[in-house]
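Exercise 3.2. Students should predict the tertiary structure of the chain below and write it as structure tokens, then compare their answer with the key that follows.

Predict this chain's 3D structure.
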Amino acid sequence: MFAESEARVLRRWASGDDELRAWTARRVAGEPLEQVVGRVEFDGLTLEVGAGAFVPRQRSVLLARVAAGLSAERGGGTVVEACCGVAPIAAAVARRVPSARLVACDSDAAILELARRNVPDLEVFEGTALSGLPAELRGHVDVVAAVPPYVPTGAAGLLPREAIDHEPGDALFGGGDGLEVATVLVRDAVDWLADNGAVALELHRDQAPAAIGVASDLGYAASSVVGDDGQTAVIVAVAEGRAQHEWVRIP
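Answer key:
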């Protein structure tokens, strides 16, 4: 149903007819368009996306804007994108809040190379969730933002075939309820956040109440905002401070 728009993307980036034919064949075979052309448009930016990388979704622009708002309220501060992939959130924050210190972590060293290219000043660390962060950041992080894997394992059949075949499963699936990694991030962030620091996570709208409950039990003030698609939610949990809706502005 998007054949014409996808054809325009292929023609835009192909170096010539031979590459266009090769790319078209790869797309027809089911490879994601963004991996074929090696790029994705996200929040006004063109980001590199390699074969086998998780492709940033347009719905994640909501998280990028919320993270930028949280950062701006702190005068920039230190923003960590966990489970960063190609670092779309860090890239968007860099454009919107140039004073922010940007840090990213991911368990895939090869994907971190793409993150570095997308955000030249990005500090990258290898590790799951927040485990790879350097000790000097403990207690000094203003914002942790992430698109954790949040598809319940049992919902794999609802995903497009191209996602199952060409994107890493650990970037898609978050356990039985989809909240395993999100819960780890909220729990572990307690040790890394500065006073009134915040965690912002993209989830499905139906997962928001459970995630807010987890955050509240850990002492956060938590709330959520739902995207225009009616399905995507961003959960914001603030440590020892006011709830998200009282102070976040989306620039």
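Discussion points: Residues 242-251 have pLDDT under 50 and may be disordered. The beta strands are 39-42, 45-48, 78-82, 101-106, 123-126, 141-146, 193-204, 220-226, 232-239.
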